[in-house]
Amino acid sequence: MAQLEWSDALNLDLPLMDDTHREFVDLLAVVAQADDAQLQPAWQALVEHTEQHFGQEDAWMASTRFASGNCHSMQHRVVLQVMREGAARAAQGDLQVLRVMASELALWFPQHAQSMDAALALHLRRVGFDPATGVVHAPQALPGELIHGCGGATCSDAGDEPVADSTDNARQAAVA
Fold first, then answer.
1. Hemerythrin-like domain spans which residues (predicted)?
2. What CA–CA distance (Å, rounded) separates 127 from 89?
3. Cα(135)–Cα(60) distance, rounded to whole angstroms?
4. Residue (of 71, 73, 70, 79) closest to 50 by Cα position
């Protein structure tokens, strides 16, 4: 099973985002190390954190001219839906699905952080966005049109489709 540890490669030089990401990595490690009795509560804590984590990033995007259907936010919605489906399967007695999903999240998260979140962090710095207060200090740097892609080179503005990655494998595991 793939496990994830915090490293400098995940640091995006945006303290509030980095702290949230560090917490995600820590909670994912708790899930990975949980015995069967602790697995569901550990997963629930991860899901609750992820709802807040993604909601925070989505709010930052909305405040800085990302379209509501941008691929970064879409990927957040897909991952959360898969995580919730895993929780439902575990509630029916299938704990293995959570172990598979945790392993897939450990593979997915670095890619997401180093591409979509890195592009978001760069965008936020460029427009002078203060994540703690929500203030944009350089409104003249905001894009004239809504951003439909993820804000970086990893995603085109041509569509709002989520990037295919290991979350597809986790989704398959959840519904199998």
1. 16-119
2. 42
3. 10
4. 79
How many angstroms separate the CA atoms of 176 and 171, rounded? 9
Residue holding tokens 């929780």? Answer: 87
Burial class (CB in 10 A: 0-12, 13-18, 19+), 47: middle
Tokens (6 digits) for 94: 């299938």
pLDDT tens digits along 135-145: 999 999 999 99
> Could you tell me the residue range of the domain that residue 72 belongs to?
15-139+150-175
- The rounded distance, in Å, linking the Cα atoms of 34 and 46 is 12
Read off the tokens for 82.
């898969």
Identify whether 6 is part of a domain: no
Query: What is the C-alpha to C-alpha distance for residues 99 and 102, in angstroms, rounded to an integer?
Result: 5
Q: What is the pLDDT of residues 118-130, one digit of tens each?
A: 999 999 999 999 9
Confidence at 170, pLDDT banded by 50, 70, 90:
very low
Residue with tokens 């965008």: 123
**Token pair belonging to 34:** 């949980």
**CATH assignment of the domain containing 163:** 1.20.120
Total number of domains constituting the chain:
1
